[in-house]
């Protein structure tokens, strides 16, 4: 075996081992949701941002905090409220009397992991303060641009838009989240275990970091090395393109969605210790990566079909790529 192949195998071994530690750490806090935890770790390694949407009390913030605490890096939490200002997020220039000049005071976004709790309770203007940082990993204040330190991930939670006192996230904001998760209610057995585990102590307080930011950056480089064949790329393009032609959708997915789908598929393949992406990876990630970016047509709403149902239908209808050597 060549030195390069041996090194690659060691990289993938490290990735699966570290990712397993992160998963197990999160699952000490989040009971009975292995699929949700798997997608969260996938988004982390794909350098994406995660939106967790569901009704209050099902563990959205707990999942975000558990993922953040499992990594030894800088973490900031932002409680989004109607009176939160954009400068609270990005930072502000203040006049320093001693040096008689303006001095930049970094905002809450200057951290490796930013937990935005109930993001849709803030005004659209404040929500938009995250746009530049999520897309370009930088913040511009008073014509000066400040780079954010890698790794950088935004994990935001939100209540459904039907809940009172919320502002729906605009399409441009939702499109910057690589994936959206819904926690769902736990199974009775998991809820019983939660009652036992959370009764005497808070498991989140006992959670210790199992990796650090520098190791996560190494794992991200390993994800970059995962091969995506031309046929798989064409399949991803065809699937996303189908959302733009569907009669059930009045807004299809963007080209950014295709890019995020491929990045997430690379991470999923790496987590499975594979050096190449399969069409199965694309199919499994289609709903969490695409559903929050599309808008169902009125007829679909009347028929009781949501975005996830429509995306699942497109996955079933778009032909799989033929086997071929790329």
Automatic annotation (TrEMBL):
Signal peptide: none
UniProt domain ChlI/MoxR AAA lid: residue ranges: 242-301
A Pfam cross-reference name: AAA_3
Every ATPase AAA-3 domain range: 49-178
Protein name: MoxR family ATPase
Native source species: Kribbella alba
Lineage: Bacteria, Bacillati, Actinomycetota, Actinomycetes, Propionibacteriales
